Amino acid sequence: VGGSSVLPCPLKQSIIMVTWKIIPKTGAPCTLGYRLDTNTTNRTTCSENMNWKSRPDLDASLEMWHVGIAQEGNYTCEVVTADGNFDKKYYLTVLVPPRPSLYCDDHGSPVCEAAAGKPAARVWWLLESNSTPEKEGHDNGTVTVLSRFTACSTNVMNATCMVFHPTGNWSQSIPC
Fold this sequence. Notes:
Elements: E1 5-7, E2 15-24, E3 30-35, E4 40-44, E5 50-52, E6 62-64, E7 73-81, E8 84-92, E9 99-104, E10 110-117, E11 122-125, E12 134-137, E13 143-148, E14 159-164, E15 170-174
């Protein structure tokens, strides 16, 4: 989320037309089109954060900036040539890094939280614990994972939480 992405569209010899068809999981579909015979481009309902990477007759790649969850979905590049039609399909998945935190609750127990990540983060305790992570899904597709440390022995001085996610890992210790 927030980064940029380029989806390549392999060009063939003697192109006539190139079209990007975008069907996001949420929102309206959009298209970007290019016709060689008139050297014109056309766009319908596409957001301003996406466009051709360069001239479509030289490089038909689609470039997106400030990618958000709304851009997640199906992307198809169709190339029409004298030899036939060719397409390249993509499914864009947007990763959202969770916001990790570690704190002591009102009972003095450590609580580890990985808020609003996509996909859901994995939360682990360094020492053995009887805790089971709780997951809460949000309307935007992100998930918050919360885990309360329940020690198997009473000799625990510090609890260390580890959060694992495709966007990066995190760990922190806390005495409660």
